[in-house]
Structure formats: structure tokens, C-alpha cells
Amino acid sequence: MSISDPSAAQTPLLDDTIDGCLDYKGRPVRRSSSGCWISASFIIVVEIAERFAYYGISSNLITYLTGPLGESTATAAAQVNAWNGAASLLPLLGAFIADSFLGRYRTIILASLVYILGLGLLALSATLCSISSSGGQNADDIALSSSLQFQVILFFSSLYLVAFAQGGHKPCVQAFGADQFDTQDPEECKAKSSFFNWWYFGMCAGTLTTLSILNYIQDNLSWVLGFAIPGIVMAMGLVVFLLGTMTYRYSVKGDEESPIVTVGRVFILAVRNRKTSYSAIAAEEEARGILATESSKQFKFLNKALLAPDGSKEQGEVCSIREVEEAKAVIRLAPIWATSLIYAIAFAQSSTFFTKQGATMDRSTAMGFEIPAASLQSFISLSVVLFIPIYDRIFVPLARALTGEPAGITLLQRIGSGMVISTISLVIAAVVEMRRLKIAEEYGLLDKPNVMVPMSVWWLVPQYALYGLADVFTMVGLQEFFYDQMPNELRSVGLALYLSIFGVGSFLSSFLISAIENLTSGDGRDSWFANNLNRAHLDYFFLLLAVLSAVGLTLYVCCTKYYIYTRWGRTF
């Protein structure tokens, strides 16, 4: 077919292309046939599958450790927190590999394959455990002991292989999904903010399915099947992700050095120039035509990287103003990261002590069905699934009309709101636990840990539901905040930093539990985390966390007063 006016035919195509993005064949990508919600849908599906797999392991892990593996409650809780911590810190490594070498798309595929391998080995370890436990008393004790040791090694190796794979998968999938929206286009920028809401909606939908179905299979049918199903679902998710390959927008990665190295050089040059006077820096800024802004005045010592240590200005010896601003953006996040750790410590309790708390209570229903203790976490996901549409479709438009903010409220306001709700939830958890202990005492069950406490498990629903509501504000807010406030080249790292909050929080929770266990278990006393929860004091622990959360919230509010938002690449 001939084209009479080539320029007329080419102009729409040029106007339709997106700067800084290519298609799967390395060609300029067209806005009308790529990205946005079509591409994001494929990516959200693979995230649903990944969350189904991850929570299929983590949500009931404490039950497996205290059951088939025979660990104590405190040891198992510490193991779960350590694993969750590693799973949340490893994304820093995965993000570095993605942003510096492989790119997000390739990292997602590689991490998914390792994920499937880890889940398969986990199912194998459960199979071996099932075989050995049915061997009977006549089995040779030495052989049985050796077999058990191998199973434990295989189990924990597989478990940490899953954590390693999650470290590559988690930051890249979310960053790659957000990359499908052009921040220089006002409409797509608004859609990107909604993407984070619906992303978390999809995550919790996958989690809700896990907690509703998989935990029942693990508790009542088979741990082997309970570990094998997540592997199958993860494989299906990878297939769906690959089906969207032709619709994705791929960020252009130039031949320049790693952005992490660039940021590091800013700090190194600033330290080397520490003796440089601020008058010399001011002269250099004036020579470059740099206008004084709030951002340029903050962390002014980094502006010393604009000069070479020996006073020369050769290419490569000094940093550009953009590189300095990128370094400032990273350091500006540090106080927000640090003050969010208390929230992460509180968040870690839902899969450990909340679960053990529910296991002692009346979990029967009117139909005679007994709710698995780990499935109570589904109320967190259910709360999120119910509230996110309300937040995105009702709250945001109303708040936007009042504040003029595209997202209704600022990201920092959103994060802080969730912290308040989380603190309230911990107070409620403590009050419910006090009532559970009182009922156990009234019925003479203090020394009968295996007897059900005649108190309905539905008493735990408010604390779970409030945890979900807190997640809608804080978790989603942190995700968008650490993505939005990082330069484009470092956005996988930004999301890894967000995840590292919960990794460090899990480790701090594990340390806190161990410290309290040692302090409260001396002189023949029952510790706060005694295996017999009727003699334990989880209520004291929840109240302690509520106090720490209030302190953390106060520090967070103080830090937000000095935060300066960065608007990378926006023209509106």
C-alpha cells in the first residue's frame, strides 16, 4: 500500500512514541499499543501468583515448625521472623542486579524459575518428612536421626532459596508494573497512583485465596500438597507474564555506569572535599547557573561533590547537579525508612503470635467446620480487598476536591494514617488477650494448654481487620513513596528499600522476642512467650508494641516536617 504524504503519516507515530522506552524488539514504543492497564494486568496476575506462593509458605510456617519439625513457640517465632527478614532484605541484592546488569524483565524471569525450584524442593522435604514420620518405632534410631537431619537441612535450604528468589522477583515486578505508566503524561500519572492501589488489591486477593484454601489443605490434608500447589501456581503465573511480553514498555538502559555507583561517587567526592568552603561551592553553583531551591539548601554538604578534590573540572572528576540531587533524594529517605521500622515490627506479629493466639480459641463454626488458625490472617486481606475500591473510587476523589492533591492526600500523610490505625489495633489485641487469659483462668485451664479456651475466635477479627486497614494506608503508601521519590534508574532499589523496612523489622522483632524471652523466663517463671499460652503474657507484649508504635509515630511526624518531595521528570 502506497503512502502519498510520508510526513503526514509519520507525524502521528512520532507523537505517539514515549521517550526513554522501547518495545520487546528494541524499537520506539507506541503509547496507543503498549503499557498502561493492558500490560499492568499481566504483571498484576504474576504478582497474585507470587503472593499466593509466598503466603502459602509464610502464613502457616510457624505451625509447620512447631508441628512436624517439633520446635518451641519462641524458637519457631524467631525462625519465622528471621526468614521473613531475609526475604525482605534480599530484594536489595535483586534490585542492584536488575538496575545494574540484567534489567527488570530478565530478572523477573530468572527469579521466577528459581522460585519454582525452591517450592519444588520444599514439597520434596515435606514428602521425606511424611515418609520418616510413618516409619514406626522399629526403625533404626541412628538412620532415623540422620534422615531427620537431612530433612531439616533440605527444608531450610529450600526455604531460603525461596527467599532468595523472592528477593529478585518482588522489587522488579512492582517497578516493572509502574514503568508501564508514563509519569510525563498527567492522565497516566494519575493511573500510576491507582496502579499501586490495585496492585495491593491483587496481592491481597492472592493472599486471601491462600489463607482460605491452602492453610486448610496444610492443616487437614497434606503438607506435601500444601507446598506443591504454590509451585504449580507460580509456574502458571510465569506463563501469564511471558504472554504479555509484546505489550510491555522497556526502559532504555544506556551504557553509562551503574546509578548506584554514581550516587556512591557523590558521597565520596563530598567527603574528599569536606574542607572546601561553602563560598567556593556558592561560586561554582553561580557559575553553573544553579538557582537556589529548598532542595539545593538541604544536605548542602553534598554540593561539595560539584568540585573536584584537586580543584580541576575535568570530565568525570566532578558530579553534575542532577547526580547530586539523586544522592540527596536517597539520603532524604533515610529518616522515613528508620521511623517506619516500628510499624514493621508490629506487622510481623500477624503471622506469628496472632496465629498462636487463635489456635487456643474456639474456631468451630455453625456448620461444624473448624477454621485453621493461620486462615485468620485472611481477615487482613479481606479488609484490604473491601477497602481499596472505597479508597480509590470514593475517598481519593473527595479528598482531591478538598486538597487539590492528585492522590487526595500526600504520601506521607497516607503512611502516617496507617501507623495510627496500627497502634489502635495493637491496643485492641492486648485487650482481647487479657480477656482470653481471664476466661482461661475462670475455667481452670491455666495448666491445660491443649484444651480449647471457650472464647470465640471471632474476637480476633477487629485486630486483623484494622491491620488490613492500616496496610491500605501505610503499606501502599510506602510502596508508592519509595518508587516515586527515587530516580528512574534506581526505582527497583527504591522498592527494595521499602521491602527492607519489613526485613529489618522482622529481625528487630526476632531480637525483641529473644531479649524478652531471656528477661522474663528466669527463676522458674513462665516467660511472656511460654509454650503454654495460658501462662504466657502476650498482652504485655502487645501493649509494649503499642507504646513503641506511638513513639515511632511521633518521630515519624517530626521527620515529615522537613521532607522535601522530588518530582522526577514531571512537567505538570
TrEMBL record:
<comment type="similarity">
    <text>Belongs to the major facilitator superfamily. Proton-dependent oligopeptide transporter (POT/PTR) (TC 2.A.17) family.</text>
</comment>
<feature type="transmembrane region" description="Helical">
    <location>
        <begin position="495"/>
        <end position="516"/>
    </location>
</feature>
<keyword id="KW-0472">Membrane</keyword>
<keyword id="KW-0812">Transmembrane</keyword>
<feature type="transmembrane region" description="Helical">
    <location>
        <begin position="411"/>
        <end position="432"/>
    </location>
</feature>
<dbReference type="Pfam" id="PF00854">
    <property type="entry name" value="PTR2"/>
</dbReference>
<dbReference type="InterPro" id="IPR044739">
    <property type="entry name" value="NRT1/PTR"/>
</dbReference>
<dbReference type="GO" id="GO:0009705">
    <property type="term" value="C:plant-type vacuole membrane"/>
</dbReference>
<feature type="transmembrane region" description="Helical">
    <location>
        <begin position="77"/>
        <end position="96"/>
    </location>
</feature>
<feature type="transmembrane region" description="Helical">
    <location>
        <begin position="198"/>
        <end position="217"/>
    </location>
</feature>
<dbReference type="InterPro" id="IPR018456">
    <property type="entry name" value="PTR2_symporter_CS"/>
</dbReference>
<dbReference type="GO" id="GO:0071916">
    <property type="term" value="F:dipeptide transmembrane transporter activity"/>
</dbReference>
<feature type="transmembrane region" description="Helical">
    <location>
        <begin position="108"/>
        <end position="128"/>
    </location>
</feature>
<dbReference type="GO" id="GO:0042937">
    <property type="term" value="F:tripeptide transmembrane transporter activity"/>
</dbReference>
<keyword id="KW-0597">Phosphoprotein</keyword>
<feature type="transmembrane region" description="Helical">
    <location>
        <begin position="330"/>
        <end position="351"/>
    </location>
</feature>
<feature type="transmembrane region" description="Helical">
    <location>
        <begin position="540"/>
        <end position="564"/>
    </location>
</feature>
<keyword id="KW-0813">Transport</keyword>
<dbReference type="InterPro" id="IPR036259">
    <property type="entry name" value="MFS_trans_sf"/>
</dbReference>
<protein>
    <recommendedName>
        <fullName>Protein NRT1/ PTR FAMILY 5.10-like</fullName>
    </recommendedName>
</protein>
<keyword id="KW-1133">Transmembrane helix</keyword>
<feature type="transmembrane region" description="Helical">
    <location>
        <begin position="223"/>
        <end position="243"/>
    </location>
</feature>
<feature type="transmembrane region" description="Helical">
    <location>
        <begin position="35"/>
        <end position="57"/>
    </location>
</feature>
<feature type="transmembrane region" description="Helical">
    <location>
        <begin position="371"/>
        <end position="391"/>
    </location>
</feature>
<feature type="transmembrane region" description="Helical">
    <location>
        <begin position="148"/>
        <end position="165"/>
    </location>
</feature>
<dbReference type="InterPro" id="IPR000109">
    <property type="entry name" value="POT_fam"/>
</dbReference>
<dbReference type="GO" id="GO:0080054">
    <property type="term" value="F:low-affinity nitrate transmembrane transporter activity"/>
</dbReference>
